[in-house]
Amino acid sequence: MLFSRQQTARHTLSHLDWLEAEAIHILREVAGQCSNPALLFSGGKDSICLLRLAEKAFRPGRFPFPLLHIDTGHNYPEVIAFRDRKAAEIGERLIVRSVEDSMQRGTVVLKHENESRNKHQSVTLLEAIEEHGFDACIGGARRDEEKARAKERIMSFRDEFGQWDPKNQRPELWNLYNARSHKGENIRAFPISNWTELDVWQYIERENLELPSIYFAHNRPIVYRQGSIVPVTDITPAKPGEEIIDLQVRFRTVGDITCTAPVISDADSIEKIIAETATTTITERGATRLDDQASEAAMEQRKKEGYF
Amino acid sequence: MTHPIEDHGLLRLLTCGSVDDGKSTLIGRLLFDSKAILADTLSAITKTSQRRGMQDVDLSLLTDGLQAEREQGITIDVAYRYFTTGTRKFIIADAPGHEQYTRNMVTAASTANLAIILVDARKGVLTQTRRHSYLAHLVGIPHLLVAVNKMDLVEFSQARFEEIKQAYLDFAEQLGIREVQFIPLSALNGDMVVDRGENLSWYQGQTLMEILETTPSAQRRHAAAFRFPVQYVCRPQDASNPALHDYRGFMGRVESGSIAVGDSVTVLPSGLSSTVKAIELGGEPLADAATEQSVTLLLADEIDISRGDMIVKTGELPTQTKQLQATVCWLAESPLDQARTYLIRHTTRDTKAKLAEIAYRVDVNSLEKQAVSQLAMNDIANVTFKLAQPLFTDPYVDNRGTGAFIVIDESSNNTVGAGMIGRESVCF
């Protein structure tokens, strides 16, 4: 049974069309099965794709969920401005809950003043879930990002403490998703689970999606610290003795300033980023997430504690 | 655009075998070698001259998560891995090979269109090979590929390859497997994975990568009837836009077949008919839609339709049934309890259900039918469920989308069973 390439092409949705159709199906399952979901929107590239997918899934209607951002207060200002502008542009409701409020309430206690607030997002997220009674949160996590994510279901169950139990996940067969939960429990839904970083960039190119400027190559003061590139900002100043270098970099992933590192790159267009992504040998998080480097199991640990 | 590259869509495949068969090495090689193909595809001018079958790379590094997980006792999991050649994207579902992992294999197989069944050239067809083939066939994977690996350890012997092929065909026939391909390879050296290599010149067929790049990605053996389970109903009722006042969009994914504007459709369970007024995606019009596309249908007549209903072409009705005869794989630690009521989810429709009868259980090693009174985790059995509400079904062999269901335990909300509907479901 031999198939020529032409025959194969004729019978198939393009890979982006297929991934898009799958993601739309998942979004609509969340809307159909859950009574009060929210879509986690940070202004990062993955959640920007989610917004476009939600538009494709639900227009001309409104989204059947608000957008939710858990803000550490340590995000790049360009990204926060983009987040607000984008939410206004598409006319959907944006809820922002901040880690700083949790700190004032005393539910987040930093070990020291300079501790990264990134992992404390979990607390603020769980507080937001309780405050609004969300029974599902839609996130832009992908299985190719990191080992712990690779094990995660598309509809991932969290108990009433927001905990994920990797050893006790619901089997997920065909496209029959089980997003049922009892009151107080929560489902995390990941419509782009099966996308890779390259797919995301190809989709951004195809859909002509706008991105925060820091995804593209730009000059920025950095220091080298323990083999990583650390951006020099008000929140992350250079330490005594460190040499500040002006370097052409871009961000592959965008999050809390204290734990997101740029990569050296001259890719100033989506086309160049795609070429770079296709040939890179380092995983997205391996290259750019200082928090995941802390230990092999860092992500798994944070997810068990309710991180998305 | 980068530059126009042919897009052959996406293929989901399953690898069956144990680490001993060289499965990790094979997956590692596919992940590694495809990088070079991708670079070739994307750089139209400069071709990499690099030979793809690299000798000195530790391929197990690429798949190390697998073994570590098993040692930690996380045995319940299917691992998904991704690679692309630029013209086609691949999703590998990898299920552990041992007997107690039947449920993992069924889970991984449920979304696969091709199964690579690994056979160690030294050992030939084993009980494990039969079990994997039975399950792959049961779950209806359209394309089976038997990869006779470690050919380097049998001196690349054509005679040995033919011997294994014949042994496999003998039992495949008993199972009713009609279409199966065979390929000799050495995952370690890379022979016949991406490059043909020097050692298997007697083999005239496609390399593994050529097979993967050209196998049809969707199940299209049957000219399937149009099935559109409704997931969500869009009624914008936007006061500022009177044009949307009467808008009713029925949102879903085409499970099978195709639909075009103007087609006559029937809505189930009401049985009311109408015609397709428009097909949309994201509010933009489409002329038609085919299998696996997520779209919104608008009908000419005002019919009350909600989630769980199904839109089909008039004259192509599925079977309406309140008694479901099916092959079930039990997934939960607690056994299937005849006294309890479960929830069955079929397409977007849920109904309460009780076990009526277990006809027999299949021993996945001997493939013998056994009489049993209850089902434990990893059991495969032919059963009948009584349903509280009717479902609209097709036999699983004809249609995965409308032939599959899951069983949910309402107390825990866990998914506890997976079912494939047989031909004998009783009509009411």
Could you explain how this protein is built, in words?
The complex is a heterodimer of chains A (308) and B (428). The termini of chain A are far apart. In chain A, the strands form 2 sheets. Chain A has a 6-stranded mixed sheet with strand order 3-2-1-4-6-5, sandwiched between helices. Helices cover 37% and strands 15% of the residues of chain A. Chain A contains 12 helices and 10 strands. Chain A is of the alpha/beta class and 308 residues long. The N terminus of chain A is likely disordered. Chain B has 428 residues and is α+β, with helices and mostly antiparallel strands. In chain B, the strands form 4 sheets. Chain B has a 6-stranded mixed sheet, sandwiched between helices. In chain B, α4 links the parallel β4 and β5. The longest helix of chain B has 20 residues. The chains are: A alpha/beta (308), B alpha+beta (428). At the A-B interface, α1, α2, α3, α8 and α9 of A face α1, β2, α3, β7 and β8 of B.
Strand content of chain B: 25-35%
Q: What is the largest interface, and how many residues per chain?
A: A-B, 68 and 79 residues
Q: N-to-C SSE series of chain A?
A: HHEHEHEHHEHEEHEEEEHHHH
Strand order of the largest sheet of chain B: 2-3-1-4-5-6
- For the termini of chain B, the CA-CA separation is 55 Å
CATH architecture of the largest domain in chain B: 3-Layer(aba) Sandwich
**Structural shape of chain A:** globular
Number of helices of chain A: 12
Q: What do the pLDDT scores of chain B average to?
A: 86
Number of domains of chain A: 2
User: If you consult CATH, what is the topology of the largest domain in chain A?
Assistant: Rossmann fold
Which structural class should the secondary elements of chain A be placed in? alpha/beta
* Strand numbers in spatial order across the main sheet of chain A: 3-2-1-4-6-5
Going by CATH, the homologous superfamily of the largest domain in chain B would be: P-loop containing nucleotide triphosphate hydrolases
Largest sheet of chain A: 6 strands, mixed
CATH class of the largest domain in chain A: Alpha Beta
- Stated plainly, the CATH topology of the largest domain in chain B is called Rossmann fold
Mean pLDDT over all positions of chain A: 86
Class from secondary-structure proportions of chain B: alpha+beta
CATH 2nd-level architecture of the largest domain in chain A: 3-Layer(aba) Sandwich
